[in-house]
Specification:
The chain is built from twelve helices and four strands. The chain is globular. The relative contact order is 0.13.
Length: about 300
């Protein structure tokens, strides 16, 4: 089931986003959750009242693209557009896991500790109106592909632009998967990303971003993995526009997981007309702590000092 069930949002702008009254705040200035809003047909109509997640200092939370956007763009308005998205109050309140996984040095640092990553997930999962965030981020994704914003860079597959787009359209899938908990009340994702003895446990969480499961990898056959793959299967099959990156890598990943976990562990059924092809994502392994860095294409989107 896709959080954007209410329909695609109308774009807020063609060139520059229009902000609410505190639009000049930095992306990390205020982080919290949407409390009383309802999905609407226009992203600009989504309420921007923010409530900081309990027990979390807003300035300490990770934020996407915190090492900068670089300058490899054919349209100079493209990084301006992305920066405007990052500064949008409602976007900040959604704290999308989908845009932190590949594009945040502060998030990478948080994954080194189960306590730190749990604190981040508490803030992400405090969003009670997932459909509103899904609608808003889908609208931004549509705007991103406009020629007046990042259209030309999207078509030439500029890695950072592709990563931004994939993160925007996969918000709902990773919100739902990232907020799943085990029978002890721990986040499944926190367990996976900090598991040094089985680093491949974290690999499936990158599927919604268009990163194929590496051949030969075998995540732990847990209830967490099964529920995560069920979420991704539902999202892939609900994608009527076939714009979700999951469309290209879910089926192959499910088949690979079933080799180790047994037939039927992961649902391999795809709706008629759905693609079962793999993406061109590659995996690069960090030497510290068994944490995996996944990158689109042949280069990492963000340089963490360990990728050449």
């Amino acid at each position: 089931m896709d959080g954007s069930k209410g329909g695609s949002a109308k774009t807020t702008s063609q060139k520059h986003l229009k902000f609410s009254s505190t639009s000049t705040a930095s992306p990390a200035a205020t982080t919290g959750s949407l409390r009383d809003s309802k999905p609407t047909s226009s992203s600009s109509a989504v309420p921007t009242g923010l409530v900081t997640a309990p027990g979390t200092a807003s300035g300490s939370l990770p934020r996407p693209f915190d090492t900068g956007l670089g300058n490899n763009y054919t349209n100079p308005d493209c990084p301006t557009f992305i920066n405007n998205v990052l500064r949008n109050d409602t976007f900040v309140s959604c704290l999308p896991l989908s845009l932190l996984l590949q594009n945040s040095m502060s998030f990478f640092s948080a994954t080194k500790s189960h306590t730190s990553i749990t604190r981040t997930l508490d803030a992400t999962c405090a969003v009670v109106n997932e459909p509103a965030c899904t609608t808003l981020l889908a609208s931004f994704a549509s705007d991103l592909r406009q020629d007046s914003n990042c259209g030309s860079d999207y078509r030439r597959q500029q890695p950072l632009v592709l990563s931004a787009y994939n993160g925007l359209v996969s918000y709902s899938s990773l919100y739902r998967a990232g907020c799943e908990k085990d029978d002890k009340g721990n986040y499944c994702f926190a367990n996976a990303i900090t598991n040094m003895t089985s680093p491949s446990d974290s690999y499936p969480y990158y599927l919604p971003l268009g990163i194929a499961l590496p051949g030969g990898s075998q995540p732990t056959c847990s209830d967490c993995l099964k529920r995560t793959m069920d979420i991704f299967n539902q999202a892939a099959n609900a994608d009527k526009t076939q714009q979700q990156p999951l469309m290209g890598d879910y089926a192959a990943a499910a088949q690979l997981i079933n080799v180790g976990c047994g037939p039927g562990f992961a649902n391999t059924t795809m709706a008629a007309g759905k693609s079962a092809g793999q993406s061109s994502g590659v995996v690069q392994q960090r030497s510290s702590g068994g944490v995996v860095v996944l990158a689109v294409g042949v280069a990492s989107l963000i340089s963490f000092g360990v990728l050449g």
